[in-house]
Amino acid sequence: MRLRKAAAAFPGVVESTSYGTPSLKVGKKSICRVKDPRTVVVMCPLEEKPALMEAAPDIYFETDHYKGWPAILVRLDAISDRELTHRLECAVRFQTRKKRPGRG
Q1: Do 31 and 91 touch, CB atoms closer than 8 A?
Q2: What global pTM score does this model have?
Q3: What is the DSSP string of 20-58?
Q4: 2-7 long-range CB contacts below 8 Å, 24 or more apart?
Q5: Which of 25, 45, 48, 96 is deepest in the core (most CB within 10 A)?
């Protein structure tokens, strides 16, 4: 599994399932899940999504279902291993960040 290999260096990441498909989690929080054989849902801050989709629309996109949700869709056949690893690292940081009082 390409996702497993990309996330191998991140401590605390475990394989799981989400909505009946393979996923990776850190603690109880999802960092990504397989949407279909060609697409992965990767968690990311809402404010980063527009820039990712604009910079690399061949890799990153969203459907109406994911609008307003802190996750971006990734085309597996278009993303390099290096970029996939980076995106998963960002997802781990996003899901393990400490929330500050009065902030999301």
Answers
A1: yes
A2: 0.90
A3: TEEEEEETTEEEEEEEETTEEEEE--GGGHHHHHHH-TT
A4: 2/76, 2/81, 2/84, 3/32, 3/34, 3/40, 3/84, 3/88, 5/81, 6/81, 6/84, 6/85, 6/88, 7/31, 7/32, 7/85, 7/88, 7/92
A5: 25
pLDDT digits (tens, 9 = 90+) for 44-75: 999 999 999 999 999 999 999 999 999 999 99
Other C-beta atoms within 10 Å of 83: how many?
15
* CB neighbours of residue 5 within 10 Å: 11
